[in-house]
């Protein structure tokens, strides 16, 4: 009797072990992890350029770059699976780069975004950017200090987001902005000598690339969107033959929005709290209040011209409300907004949008 009980216990234990085993698991050395994928449009097909780090075969700094033509993401996975003895995984994917020509095709962008959403394993926080030129060239770039393009771009995008140079860097954020607002600013990656750089933003409207914001223009938009966290570069000016740099340590802003019939008026009032970041040792001009007023006037002139030019570009060229004025209208002037909601782009294009700058110089030196 005891023998029978012992046999039953052994059977139960063995059964439990077999039932909990991961029969469909794949050993790490039998997988290839996609780290970065660039997508370009080639006629009626898509060209996928993928980066796979060699995390088992020697140094982790080594990588494999493959290029295939496919009709979709699903087709890309199937072809990749057939061309390798290993299982293809996108769980560790860091970056997706869309080629410039592809990004101009709204229908294709929608299709790609839909496939990313449907992927059961892809990380929805995968970072996304648009290539100035071809995505294939971005992925193929050899960066001596950081051989893995996926890791390099991922680290750069995180830094730019953290320091408020860029607003969007993940797929989730991009599709949220495009779905809810109809537009988005997506980081632009370019080849820079032996490396890559991200200084501009792509203006996306209804999932279609309509243009780019240069570095100064992007800075102006970020200032109006989030003045408290805006990361302003120094304002370089020349007064009485003296070249100097003015840095902002803090920014405050209020705005006034008025919609009457179809006439939209928006006024931003911004105060920059600044310091003198570069001057000349031994020069006492900074002790003169008239000289300080010249500094303020010239600095405000430069930044005002830059901001006005950017707003005109958004209104007239791109016809895209990246300033999110529409959201404030809906929130605070809902009844008036509902009257023009179906032709908001026309109203925005004709809107009077003005930015009024004021500057306070908090410090003229290290101890003053």
Biggest sheet overview: 8 strands, mixed
- The outline comes out as globular
How much of the sequence lies in strands comes to 25-35%
The strands making up the biggest β-sheet line up spatially as 4-3-2-6-7-8-9-10
Ends apart, CA distance between termini: 95 Å
Task: Give the count of structural domains.
Answer: 2
Structure notes:
The protein is 37% helix and 32% strand. With 368 residues, the chain is of the alpha/beta class. It folds into 2 domains: 28-213, no CATH class; 218-363, GMP Synthetase, Chain A, domain 3, CATH 3.30.300. The strands form 3 sheets. The chain has an 8-stranded mixed beta sheet, with helices on both faces. Strands 11-12-13-14 form a 4-stranded mixed beta sheet, with helices on both faces. A two-stranded parallel ribbon has the order 1-5. Strand 11 and strand 12 form a beta hairpin. Helix 8 packs across helix 9 (289-318) and helix 10 crosses helix 11 (334-340). Mean pLDDT is 86; it is low at 17-26.
SSE topology sketch:
Elements (H helix, E strand, L loop, with lengths): L1 H18 L11 E3 L2 E7 L2 E9 L9 E8 L2 H10 L4 E3 L5 E4 L1 H4 L2 H13 L8 E5 L3 H5 L9 H14 L8 H10 L2 E10 L2 E11 L2 E6 L1 H11 L9 E5 L2 E19 L2 E16 L10 H30 L6 H8 L1 H7 L3 H7 L1 E12 L5
Helix pairs in contact: 8-9, 10-11
């Amino acid at each position: 009797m005891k023998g029978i009980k012992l046999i039953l216990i052994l059977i139960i234990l063995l059964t439990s072990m077999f039932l909990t085993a991961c029969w469909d698991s794949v050993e790490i050395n039998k997988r290839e992890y996609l780290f970065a994928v660039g997508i370009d449009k080639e006629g009626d097909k898509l060209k996928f350029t993928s980066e796979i780090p060699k995390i088992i075969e020697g140094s982790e700094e080594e990588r494999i770059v493959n290029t295939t033509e496919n009709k979709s993401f699903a087709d890309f996975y199937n072809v990749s699976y057939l061309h390798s003895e290993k299982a293809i995984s996108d769980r560790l994917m860091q970056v997706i780069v869309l080629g410039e020509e592809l990004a101009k095709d709204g229908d294709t962008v929608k299709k790609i975004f839909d496939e990313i959403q449907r992927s059961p394993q892809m990380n929805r926080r995968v970072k996304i950017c648009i290539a100035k030129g071809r995505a294939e060239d971005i992925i193929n770039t050899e960066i001596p200090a950081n051989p893995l393009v996926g890791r390099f771009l991922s680290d750069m995008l995180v830094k730019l987001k953290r320091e408020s140079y860029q607003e969007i860097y993940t797929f989730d954020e991009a599709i949220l902005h495009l779905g809810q607002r109809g537009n988005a600013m997506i980081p632009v990656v370019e080849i820079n000598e032996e490396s890559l750089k991200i200084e501009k933003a792509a203006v996306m409207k209804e999932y279609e690339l309509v243009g780019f914001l240069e570095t100064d223009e992007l800075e102006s938009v970020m200032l109006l969107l989030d003045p408290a966290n805006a990361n302003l570069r120094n304002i370089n000016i020349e007064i009485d033959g003296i070249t100097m740099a003015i840095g902002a340590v803090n920014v405050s802003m209020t705005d006034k929005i008025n919609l009457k019939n179809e006439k939209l008026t928006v006024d931003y009032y911004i105060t920059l709290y600044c310091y003198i970041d570069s001057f000349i040792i031994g020069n006492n001009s900074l002790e003169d209040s008239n000289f300080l007023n010249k500094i303020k006037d010239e600095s405000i002139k430069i930044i005002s011209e830059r901001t006005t030019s950017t707003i005109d570009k958004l209104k007239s060229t791109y016809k895209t409300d990246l300033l999110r004025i529409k959201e404030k209208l809906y929130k605070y002037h809902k009844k008036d907004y509902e009257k023009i909601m179906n032709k908001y782009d026309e109203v925005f294009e004709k809107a009077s949008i003005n930015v009024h700058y004021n500057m306070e110089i908090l410090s003229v030196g290290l101890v003053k």
